[in-house]
Write a structure and sequence with these properties.
heterodimer; A: alpha/beta; 32% helix; B: mainly alpha; 2 domains; 3-stranded antiparallel beta sheet; 5% strand
Chain lengths: 271, 419
């Protein structure tokens, strides 16, 4: 509970120019005695959009949450194996999950803005992480990056809950990038939105991929095909544990999958 | 099957026996039963209000030992005399011993005019309520009452009186029902509740936060939770025994104020407002914890995840998101718990509330009485006038309760709106 607050990267973060932003090695996640994902080895490329696809219950979300230790909020969950971020295992005993989550942000399936003003929503993460710059500038910049600024600039002091679903989700993305993370994890960010709002989120992801590494879980295969650069396909094995079946450039996964199960899934034969 | 369709709407009558009339009869029976329960509840409440209000207002037959008119000096009525004239009246009508006792309590020369006038009324005029009639009788039986007064109490005056008066709220307890008031009891109740809130709220919310947010699921946590739930059902008199053992006896030096040099250690005892407040705090603590736990549990997980996802610590998440969202719920539970505490009598009787004090409580280490104690004490007195006083005090208690609840609800709504 009182783990040493040890920086997991040097105080001045080197621009993540390495080829890979984050890497899972032999990663398994358990809920109590149940193994939800099993022996995942996966390297996520920097400043690209990587999509996790697969049928319900295959462990996509669990795997995603393992990348910023979000699973630990479930009391019985624990992980084995390693997740390397800048060469440092984020599951090492001296690493504080709070530090991890600031570097590796998250956007959830259902938009979950704080019941506060729009301004406070964006500013809060930066405030608690000790942001010393000009807060109003940071808020504006974050809202501009998510193409929300023009829509909300006149009502920054109004409740975020008054926004539409799509706007709320973009606000949540703005909130996530306001703490300047390296990586943004998105857990089916558009599944509760209408097609137009979905399209906006996808465009936004494209924009953000110029500066951030994005990992997205999606149920929607068209979305994965449209919006991602790389795709990982997961499937439950005979023990109902999620395993990585195939991982590669999106174009290749969707046109020339090497595994028969991948082909069956993307052609709609099951799932 | 298709050959069997012969009901008015079609359908397989042999497979389904709809039995609609029977089902409707059952529904009507239950409906009636629920309506009856509601009506019984309303009747009970009305009866309570009827009794209390009926007793709080009514006719009284007032008999003065000495008529105020006969005390007038040179045509100036009693109420407008000077201080010296009041002292002279007192000296003329009281025994020398009693007169000296009042002088030594507070010299007559230092007493205010109002004080002297009250003393003259109390000791010389001595208005006594020889008989009282409730409100309903006063309206419908007026003639009979007047004949009764003329027959049984010659010289008595029949007056309509409300037992709840500004004087009733302002005066301390007294042995004569004509003069008794609830001032000490109201102050005692307010002091006690203040201490109860100040102690129980932080401890209750703190415990709830720990149990909901920090405690790992283990058999020990489950045991604690179960026990807290059970404690909420323990009879309040048991808490009185607990308070007597812990606060009145065990921590006497602290609760009497002797440890802080605020009371004389040789005479001070632990039967103080502090002990009462702490005992009531113990009493409502389980209620507060359970309720705060529910409120915290009702905060959506998505809110916590959003906070953690931004790199917030557990404490930042709790303090900035969980607690503000749970606050309206916590306040609602607090309102209910306080309402219960303010009406508690049994534990305070056990820890030794004074039933008769005339001095205002002046702090946590004062002796005290509370409104329910006062009501209880008055109802157990033989003179019927005290029953009217008790009814009036019940109205005051209800008003106090309503005021506190209203302000708490307003406070809660303010917080809900902000969220």
């Amino acid at each position: 509970m009182f783990a040493n607050h040890q920086p997991i990267v040097p105080a001045t973060i080197p621009a993540p120019n390495g080829e890979y932003a984050i890497e899972a090695q032999g990663l398994s996640v358990f809920y109590g005695g149940f193994r939800a994902v099993k022996d995942i080895a996966l390297k996520v490329r920097t400043r690209k959009i990587t999509a996790f696809i697969g049928p319900s219950g295959c462990g996509k979300s669990t795997l995603l949450r393992a990348f910023n230790r979000m699973n630990e909020l479930i009391p019985t969950a624990h992980a084995a194996g390693a997740v390397l971020y800048h060469g440092q295992d984020i599951y090492a005993p001296d690493v504080d999950p709070v530090e991890v989550r600031r570097r590796i942000g998250m956007v959830f399936q259902k938009a979950n803005p704080f019941p506060k003003t729009i301004y406070e929503n964006v500013a809060w993460g930066a405030t608690i992480n000790g942001y010393r710059g000009n807060m109003a500038e940071l808020v504006e910049q974050s809202l501009r990056q998510t193409a929300l600024w023009d829509e909300v600039k006149d009502k920054l002091q109004q409740s975020a809950l008054a926004l539409s679903g799509g706007q709320q989700q973009r606000l949540c993305i703005a909130r996530a990038i306001a703490v300047k993370p390296d990586i943004i994890l998105m857990d089916e960010p558009a599944s509760a939105l209408d097609p137009i709002a979905t399209l906006k989120i996808e465009e936004l992801m494209r924009e953000l991929a110029q500066n951030y590494t994005i990992i997205i879980v999606t149920h929607n295969m068209q979305q994965a095909a449209r919006a991602s650069d790389f795709t990982a396909f997961l499937l439950m094995d005979s023990d109902r544990a999620g395993t990585l079946i195939e991982y590669g450039p999106t174009r290749q996964i969707f046109t020339r999958p090497t595994d028969q199960r991948t082909e069956d899934y993307i052609t709609g034969r099951f799932g | 099957m298709s050959a069997e369709t012969n009901g008015p709407l079609g359908g397989a009558e042999q497979t389904f026996d709809a039995g609609l009339p029977q089902r409707k009869r059952v529904a009507v029976a239950w409906h009636t039963l629920f309506l009856a329960s509601t009506i019984i509840g309303v009747i009970a409440l009305t009866a309570l209000l009827y009794t209390v209000i009926n007793q709080s207002f009514g006719l009284v037959a007032v008999q003065n030992r000495i008529e105020p008119a006969s005390l007038a000096v040179d045509g100036v009525p009693l109420a407008q005399l000077t201080q010296e004239q009041y002292v002279a009246i007192l000296q003329a009508n009281l025994s020398p011993g009693v007169f000296r006792r009042y002088d030594s309590e507070q010299p007559f020369t230092e007493r205010s005019r109002e004080n002297l006038y009250a003393l003259v009324l109390e000791r010389v005029v001595q208005p006594r309520y020889v008989k009282t009639w409730p409100l309903i009788a006063a309206f419908f039986d007026r003639a009979a009452i007047e004949t009764e007064v003329a027959r049984d109490f010659p010289g008595a005056k029949l007056v309509f009186r409300s037992w709840v008066t500004p004087d009733f709220l302002r005066s301390p307890q007294a042995s004569a029902p004509e003069l008794a008031g609830v001032r000490t009891a109201i102050l005692g109740s307010l002091w006690t509740i203040l201490i109860t809130i100040l102690t129980a709220l932080p401890i209750g919310v703190g415990a709830a936060i720990y149990l909901e947010e920090y405690a790992r699921a283990s058999w020990a946590t489950r045991l604690i939770r179960t026990n807290i739930t059970n404690l909420a059902g323990v009879p309040s008199i048991i808490y009185g025994m607990l308070g007597l053992a812990i606060f009145v006896r065990g921590a006497e030096a602290l609760t009497s104020g002797a440890a802080f040099g605020l009371a004389d250690p040789t005479t001070a005892n632990g039967r103080t407002i502090l002990s009462a407040g702490l005992t009531l705090a113990l009493l409502i603590l389980p209620l507060l914890i359970i309720n705060a736990q529910e409120a915290i549990r009702a905060v959506p997980r998505s809110l916590r995840q959003a906070s953690y996802g931004l790199g917030a610590t557990q404490w930042q998440t709790i303090w900035r998101h969980v607690l503000p969202s749970a606050l309206p719920g916590i306040l609602t539970g607090t309102i209910l718990a306080i309402s219960r505490a303010i009406g508690e009598t049994a534990p305070l009787v056990v820890i030794g509330a004074s039933t008769f004090i005339v001095v205002d409580p002046n702090g946590p280490f004062a002796k005290f009485t509370t409104l329910p104690i006062q009501i209880y004490q008055w109802t157990s007195r033989p003179q019927p006038q005290f029953r009217n006083l008790a009814a009036a005090a019940i109205l005051v208690l209800l008003a106090l309760l309503l005021t506190m609840n209203t302000s708490a609800v307003l406070l809660r709504n303010r917080y809900s709106r902000r969220a």
